[in-house]
Write the structure tokens for this entry.
Amino acid sequence: MTYIVKMISDHWLGCETIESVCVKGVILPEDHLPHTKLLDLQPLPTSVLKNELFQGYFTFDHFNPIQTQVFHSLYHTDENVLVGAPTGSGKTVAAELAMFRVFGNYPKSKRVVELTGDVVPDMKAVMAADVIVTTPEKWDGISRSGQVR
């Protein structure tokens, strides 16, 4: 099997090329899932935070299924986590769980920078920040053009 790939530069006018790519003999995974299945877990109570201050922050008693599934990774590890879920599914609470870990385990004061809207960020403040709060779209724009600024 051969694919034709056309590449066009987004930086240089008229800079493009067409290549044929042979994928004969390439073995692809049979069951490649683009996401982690939502497990049928018992919802975790907010008491698993073991911190009354953190527990009091929430107006509910149990985390939803998505928050329950990612709880351990967010609250008990320093691993990177990507949570992709529909609007209204609890991603903000998931981010708050990660923040609680940071503030609970590393109590010194933090420099927090918020990147939202159409405001041009102060890159020195961004580089000095311990925590950056932003949207995926804003972060994409900052991270792609950061080396130019």
